[in-house]
Amino acid sequence: MREEHNSSASMKQKKTRYQYPERLTSDSSSDNASKLSHVKKTHQHAQVRDTRNRILWILGSLLIVEIATALLTSPVFAIRKIQISGLNALTEVEANNTRRSVQITPGTNWITAPNSRILQAVTVLPWIRSASVNRSLPTNITIRTQARVPVLLLQSASELFEIDALGVPIRIARTEFMYRLPKVELVGWKSPSIGEPVRSLALETILEQLPHNNLDAAARIAKIQVDQSDNICLNMKDDLRINFGSWADWEQKMSLTQRLYRVEPNASNRFLSVNLSVPASPVCILKDRKHVSAAPSISDTTKL
Fold it and tell me: Of 3.40.50.150, 3.50.50.60, 3.30.300.70, 3.10.20.310, which CATH number belongs to 76-147?
């Protein structure tokens, strides 16, 4: 009996020992299958999502292209009008030439308007100092110009020009400006070109200083001569010649000229010419004595 009982107990232990691994293997296989199924579903969902996003991106791109094409080709966005301001100071011919320079092909799109080309076409005109080009609603182009303002008359060997504060010849001088602006004569210079600045330090100094010389002497100037070496000579309205020499010390030389006319209002009656090329030692040529005299020797009447 004992042997049978021991044999039965031994068999139960064996069954118990071998049944546990079988259940463990079965559970593990089920978990792996579940995980694999989940991974497959996740991958499928990702593929569907990527495909949907790709389709939406293509449709969005096509929509953008369609809208852009409509904006760039629709006659609704064609330029209706070009507005130009700042032409009042120009002559009629110059104003008309300015308008013609900005003409564009009818139907040109407002969004792709060639603003840079329009700006270049305007600013190359010699009578235009600066300009700006902008789009304005509904579909207009607005051009604002600043005309060059003449401040001097520039006399060359063959022509008389109006020039602006930058030394740029604007046009052949108009009759109404012949006696309203100071005149500068270029002695021995090549005739300047309209629209191209004259390169002269003497002229630059005159343009910079003369408008600020609110002196009686400045009003007495009939013409200023500038030679090829940039030496300056004032031809006064009373026919007195005042030699400034180089353009340096302009203010001091103008002050001496002012002082001369304050002491000698009719200086041309006594002097043939005055040399201020060395401001510390002005020299005068007297009419009655016909000789050169330094200022100190005539200090009683012409102390400069």
Answer: 3.10.20.310
Q: How far out from the chain centre does Cα 184 lie? A: 29
The answer to whether the pTM exceeds 0.90 is no
Residue 299 has pLDDT above 50, yes or no: no
Give the list of residues 6+ apart from residue 126 with CB closer than 8 angstroms, or none. Answer: 148, 168, 169, 170, 171, 194, 195
Just give the CATH number of 152-302.
3.40.50.11690
Provide the phi-psi class of 107: left if phi over 0, else alpha when psi is between -120 and 50, else beta. Answer: left
- Over residues 210-265, the pLDDT tens digits come to 877 766 777 889 999 999 999 999 999 999 999 999 999 999 999 999 999 998 88
Strand partners, 278: none
User: How far from the centroid of its chain's Cα atoms is residue 227's Cα?
Assistant: 33
